[in-house]
Amino acid sequence: MNSSTDPRRPDKEVRYKPASSNNQSHIQDDMIPEYMNVIGMIFSMCGLMMRLKWCSWVALYCSCICFANTRATEDAKQILSCFMLSISAVVMSYLQNPQPMVPPWASVMQ
C-alpha cells in the first residue's frame, strides 16, 4: 500500500477528553429520579391511607418517571419498592371502592 494515497492524517488525531464533572446541570439531572421517587412514595402513602384514587395514579406516574430516568448502574431496590407501592395503592384504592374515579375538580363544579 502506498503511503501517499493513505487518507488518514496522524497529525490531525485528537484524543478524547470527557467533559468536566463541574457542570451543575449534570447534578440537577441526576436528582430528578430521586425527587420522583420521594414524591411517588408520598402520594402512594396518601392514596393508601386516605383512599384517594388520584393520589395513587399520581404515585404510579411519578414511579414511571423515576424508573425511566434512572441509570442502569444505580441500585434498583428502592425504585422497585416505590413502583410496587404505587401499584398496590392503585389496586387497593379500587378494591375498597370499585366506582370510577371522580377527579377532585369535578365535585367543585356540581
UniProtKB/TrEMBL annotation:
The chain crosses the membrane at residues 78-95. It is found in: Membrane. Its main location: membrane. The keyword Kinase does not apply. Residues 1-25 are annotated as: Disordered. GO terms for biological process: protein insertion into ER membrane. It holds the Pfam family ASTER. Residues 1-16 have a biased composition (Basic and acidic residues). GO terms for molecular function: protein folding chaperone. The keyword Transmembrane applies. GO terms for cellular component: endoplasmic reticulum membrane. Keywords: Membrane, Transmembrane, Transmembrane helix. Belongs to the Asterix family. PANTHER family: CGI-140, PAT COMPLEX SUBUNIT ASTERIX. This is Protein Asterix. It comes from Cardiocondyla obscurior.
